[in-house]
């Protein structure tokens, strides 16, 4: 009797570790979401109470984390089939799928309600749209069906600076739309650079990423095309008079560097070399690019506020 009790006790599953729930929020991706949201808030004209501003950024973080949890809940089986994602909490068996679903819904609902009640309902509506866009339109609909999933789905990650801006101003104007457009056009070359050196993972689980469906050559050409578009879009806030020369100069310099790094990616023959160094270099720089570009936006705004720019 004692032995049976001991055996039964050892089969009881322990509660999931808090770090597994935290991993569901995709912390690395969330850091970029929080940063661009914060930059949108700081660059917006006008002022906001620091507590309200902190609440807005917290809601953006919670919403992003909730959407990421819903994404992993839906894609648990796919993640288990890919080397890059097999160690995530759900495919690794450290967390039950039902718990991930509840966690994602809780974070998403809380983020929208708090944003609406404490900050602004327009910002809350945009946040709700961004969560739905990522968790449903991109994850459930686009990703498994079309190689254009990243192009269309890029809008999901483009909302944070717009939300931050609207939290301050209470309205959607040209500038937050341009900030949205920057991330929207940045996403394809950023993600396709990654997809080029992990395409076997996507092929194995049947996800129609562009390198898998259209081939490497077409993907490389698209990376170059979007890098050219990004150069124009990133400079647009300066060209329309929404920022000063500090942002304009840095935006052009960073975007030219992005374009230069995309050229060897675009001109490489499929299968040329095994290490994919140009692709990895572009992917790494693309992350730095977005951080630096939005930091330049804030620096420009501070300089303007202090009278350093006309």
Question: What report would you give on this structure?
Answer:
The chain is an all-alpha fold. The protein folds into 2 domains: 153 residues, UbiA prenyltransferase (Tetracycline Repressor, domain 2), CATH 1.10.357.140; 133 residues. It contains 15 helices and no strands. Helix 3 runs parallel beside helix 9 and helix 14 runs antiparallel to helix 15. The longest helix has 29 residues. The termini are far apart. The N terminus is likely disordered.
CATH topology of the largest domain: Tetracycline Repressor, domain 2
- State the distance separating the first and last CA atoms: 84 Å
Average pLDDT, all residues: 89
By CATH, the architecture of the largest domain is named: Orthogonal Bundle
Overall domain count = 2
Shape: flat
CATH class of the largest domain: Mainly Alpha
Q: Could you name the ranges where pLDDT drops below 50 across 5 or more consecutive residues?
A: 1-14
Beta percentage is: under 5%
Largest sheet: none
State the CATH superfamily name of the largest domain: UbiA prenyltransferase
Tell me the structural class.
Answer: mainly alpha
Please give the number of β-strands.
0
Discrete helix count: 15
Approximate helicity band: over 70%
Measured on Cα atoms, how large is the radius of gyration? 21 Å
The SSE string, one letter per element, is: HHHHHHHHHHHHHHH
């Amino acid at each position: 009797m004692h032995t049976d009790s001991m055996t039964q006790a050892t089969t009881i599953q322990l509660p999931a570790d808090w770090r597994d729930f935290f991993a569901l929020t995709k912390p690395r991706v969330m850091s970029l979401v929080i940063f661009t949201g914060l930059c949108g808030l700081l660059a917006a004209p006008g002022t906001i109470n620091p507590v309200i501003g902190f609440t807005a950024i917290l809601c953006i973080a919670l919403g992003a984390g909730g959407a990421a949890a819903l994404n992993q809940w839906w894609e648990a089986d796919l993640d288990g089939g890919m080397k890059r994602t097999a160690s995530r909490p759900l495919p690794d068996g450290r967390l039950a799928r039902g718990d991930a679903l509840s966690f994602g819904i809780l974070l998403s609902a809380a983020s929208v309600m708090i944003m609406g009640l404490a900050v602004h309902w327009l910002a809350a509506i945009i946040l709700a749209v961004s969560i739905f866009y990522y968790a449903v339109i991109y994850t459930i609909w686009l990703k498994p069906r079309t190689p254009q999933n990243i192009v269309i789905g890029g809008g999901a990650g483009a909302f944070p600076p717009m939300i931050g801006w609207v939290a301050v101003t209470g309205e959607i104007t040209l500038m937050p739309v341009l900030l949205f457009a920057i991330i929207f056009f940045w996403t394809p070359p950023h993600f396709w650079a990654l997809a080029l050196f992990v395409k076997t993972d996507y092929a194995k689980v049947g996800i129609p990423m562009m390198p898998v469906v259209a081939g490497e050559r077409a993907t490389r050409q698209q990376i170059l095309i979007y890098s050219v578009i990004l150069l124009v879009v990133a400079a647009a806030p300066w060209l329309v008079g929404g920022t000063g020369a500090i942002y304009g100069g840095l935006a052009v310099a960073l975007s030219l560097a992005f374009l230069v790094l995309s050229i060897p990616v675009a001109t490489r023959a499929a299968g040329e070399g095994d290490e994919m160094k140009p692709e990895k270099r572009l992917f790494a720089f693309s992350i730095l690019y977005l951080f630096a570009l939005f930091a330049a936006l804030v620096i420009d705004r501070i300089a303007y506020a202090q009278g350093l720019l006309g």
